[in-house]
UniProtKB/TrEMBL annotation:
InterPro entries xref list: 6-hairpin_glycosidase_sf (IPR008928), 6hp_glycosidase-like_sf (IPR012341), GH15-like (IPR011613), Trehalase-like_N (IPR045582)
Pathway membership, UniProt: Glycan degradation; trehalose degradation; D-glucose from alpha,alpha-trehalose: step 1/1
Keywords: Carbohydrate metabolism, Glycosidase, Hydrolase
Source organism (scientific name): Mycolicibacillus trivialis
Signal peptide interval: none
Protein name: Trehalase
The GH15-like domain, residue ranges: 274-585, 597-639
Gene3D superfamilies found in the cross-reference section: 1.50.10.10
UniProt record similarity statement: Belongs to the glycosyl hydrolase 15 family.
Domain of life the protein comes from: Bacteria
Enzyme Commission (EC) number: 3.2.1.28
Gene Ontology annotations of biological process type: trehalose catabolic process
GO function terms (MF aspect): alpha,alpha-trehalase activity
Enzyme class, broadest EC rank: hydrolase
Organismal lineage: Bacteria, Bacillati, Actinomycetota, Actinomycetes, Mycobacteriales
Length: 662
């Protein structure tokens, strides 16, 4: 099946997408590192990759998203790349996703012609028919990853000289690689690690181009005329790669259908912001790891929160908090299968599925790994010279008291729609409530995982209240009346403690007990219904954060000079916090102010409607790991808050928030 060429999208990018400055290198030369916002994100729900605007794959880890990279130019320009595009041209005319999909389309113009390139991590019909999968633990879907990065090219006008360069660098560029032909002609070659090749993935390149091999690099260069088609497939498993352009086009079509069939399940309002909701939902789905049900915090490691700074972390893991918050977003849009799979993942890591009991950690590997030892890769320059590059994450063994509440809140949201709790999950939930009861009076490192001394963070206490409140409601669903009564009483005790010690003389909730510092996480007090929206302390807190914890209107997590986070340097505005503020402003009936802020935040989206962790308020530059699940879930909640407020205003009814009282 040959795919028809789609015209490039006529929707203009947001203004900042054109004017966002590229960071300058020494001497004013163009920085070799592209802006973070220029990357495109691909996924097959088993791994992810990032592609620069120049058409170069600069981040790919196989076979899992937390495996060592084989293309890592994002973190060091010599750490591996895979580019295809016109020779001598690095700035495309247009880029877009095919609507309703994670298929990237790039349109190129040269002096002599036009090219259209389409990129995808291939998905197809479920293929383990006669034997069971050795990696999947969750219920099989209709579609599955084929472990192929597919790039198709079509010359649509004139003639264009095409160049392909594939230069992997194994194990984060710690091990060299080499190519060799694997067929009698020039259309197939394999790359292996020079050292201990059996311990590293073998990459197979299949194409209708004539490949030349030059050490680490496989390259091709040819002149295409109008109507010519090219495909290049990079694969790392037993699944057969396409052998012709027609087969490649069929795989692209199947992949498009996979994404569209999934997005069609969702409930997306007929609204000008619908495209942002759909792109955020697709991004969250792309950050799931389908074999286990885990959900990544982000696709990358060590993209800096501070330009050329040290706030560089590995986010390729499943945070309990981030994952359960993400389920809020998907649930809001009517997408619930991901919740089923994630709760099964929780049952796995807690030991409930095999009769054991393990305390819930802050985060896990996507396969359920518990040890995520942090390591620095000193041989890599880092993105734009931001060092160190880190793999693993030392926060895995921190004590963070908010995780019990976030998980129980998500389970309650899930259980409300079904009026039941999965049998294997009830012992896990009971254990989380017991952990909250045991530890809520103790200090912790908080939602922001500070590396300074533990503190009595107010938001952690609030989330412990959420754990007891939702636990009591889940106990009612389970028919455990005595637990419900007991836990409700303890929830009341926690609330009284917070209101006595976590509110300043202005009636504003504070970051930690005994301090007047503000913290954006306190916006969760209204979003989780710790206090109702009409409580004066909620209004005071929301407006204080809006007026005093912002730079150029964007919300900071906290003031670094007021918070012992164990790190040096400044950071950008955390985008999730600004979207939280949108939702909170709607809750206190400041809808006009909320809408203005939301419009501004949407204008900061990347040209492909993606978001990193932070935004630099002055320039709109994206900072931190990319794309960030936290940001996209908060976008969904904020946009739906605005839309529902508009609908209620039109019908003169009472506003019902996106997160209804729990």
């Amino acid at each position: 099946m040959v795919m028809h060429v789609q015209p490039a999208s006529d929707a203009p990018p947001p203004p900042h997408a054109v004017t966002e400055p590229v960071p300058e290198a020494v001497g004013g030369l163009r920085n070799p590192f592209p802006p973070i916002a220029d990357y495109a994100f691909l996924s097959d729900c088993e791994t992810t990759c990032l592609i620069s605007a120049a058409g170069s794959v600069e981040w790919l880890c196989v076979p899992r998203p937390d495996s060592p990279s084989v293309f890592g130019a994002m973190l060091d320009r010599s750490a591996g790349h895979f580019r295809i595009g016109p020779y001598g041209v690095s700035v495309p005319s247009a880029r877009r996703y095919l609507p309703g999909s994670l298929i990237l389309e790039t349109t190129w113009q040269t002096h002599t012609g036009w090219l259209i390139v389409r990129d995808a991590l291939v998905m197809g019909p479920w293929h383990d028919i006669e034997t069971r999968s050795r990696t999947h633990r969750r219920t099989p879907m209709d579609w599955d990853a084929e472990h192929i990065l597919l790039r198709s090219v079509r010359c649509v006008s004139g003639t264009v000289e095409l160049m392909m360069s594939c230069e992997p660098a194994f194990d984060y560029h710690r091990i060299g690689g080499y190519w060799e032909y694997s067929a009698s002609a020039y259309g197939e070659a394999v790359a292996r690690a020079k050292t201990n090749p059996d311990a590293h993935p073998m990459l197979r390149l299949t194409t209708n181009l004539r490949i030349g091999l030059e050490g680490r690099e496989a390259r091709a260069r040819t002149r295409l005329k109008e109507g010519d088609n090219v495909f290049v497939a990079l694969s790392w498993s037993k699944h057969p790669a396409p052998q012709t352009y027609e087969e490649a086009a069929e795989k692209l079509w199947n992949t498009t259908e996979c994404w569209r069939q999934w997005i069609n399940i969702g409930d997306f309002p007929d609204h000008p912001w619908r495209s942002y909701l759909q792109r955020s939902a697709l991004t969250l789905k792309g950050l799931t790891y389908s074999p286990t049900g885990a959900l990544l915090a982000a696709s990358t490691t060590s993209l800096p929160e501070t330009p050329q700074g040290e706030r560089n972390w590995d986010y390729r893991y499943a945070w309990i908090r981030d994952s359960t918050f993400a389920l809020w977003g998907l649930y809001t849009l009517g997408l619930d299968r991901e919740a089923d799979d994630f709760f099964a993942f929780i049952a796995d890591v807690s030991g409930a599925n095999n009769g054991e009991r393990h305390p819930l950690q802050v985060m896990y590997g996507v396969g359920g790994e518990r040890q995520l030892e942090e390591e620095e890769l000193s041989h890599l320059s880092g993105y734009d010279n931001a060092r160190p590059v880190r793999i693993g994450n030392g926060a895995y063994n921190q004590r963070q008291h908010d995780i019990w509440g976030t998980m129980l809140d998500s389970v309650y949201l899930h259980a409300k729609s079904r009026e039941q709790i999965p049998e294997a999950l009830w012992p896990v939930l009971k254990q989380q409530v017991e952990e909250a009861i045991k530890h809520w009076r103790e200090p912790d490192r908080g939602i922001w995982e500070v590396r300074g001394e533990p503190q009595h963070f107010t938001s952690s206490k609030i989330m412990c209240w959420v754990a007891l409140d939702r636990g009591a409601k889940l106990a009612e669903v389970q028919g455990e009346k005595s637990y419900a009564q007991q836990w409700r009483a303890i929830a009341d005790e926690i609330k009284a403690d917070v209101l006595e010690h976590g509110v300043d003389e202005r009636g504003v909730l504070t970051q930690r007990y005994g301090s007047d510092a503000l913290d954006a996480s306190l916006l969760l007090a209204v979003l989780t219904r710790f206090l109702p929206p009409d409580d004066q302390r909620i209004r005071n807190t929301v407006l204080a954060i809006a007026d005093e914890l912002t730079e150029d209107g964007l919300v900071l997590r906290y003031r670094v000079e007021e918070t012992d986070d164990g790190l040096s340097g400044e950071e950008g505005a955390f985008t999730i916090c600004s979207f939280w503020l949108v939702s909170a402003l709607v809750e206190i009936d400041e809808v006009s102010r909320a809408k203005h802020l939301c419009e501004r935040l949407l204008s900061f989206a990347s040209p492909l409607h993606l978001y990193a962790e932070e935004i630099e308020p002055r320039t709109g530059r994206h900072l931190g790991n990319f794309p960030q699940a936290f940001t996209h879930l908060a976008l969904i909640n904020a946009v739906v808050h605005i839309i529902r407020a508009e609908e209620e205003a039109d019908s003169s009814g009472d506003f019902q928030p996106a997160n209804a009282p729990m």
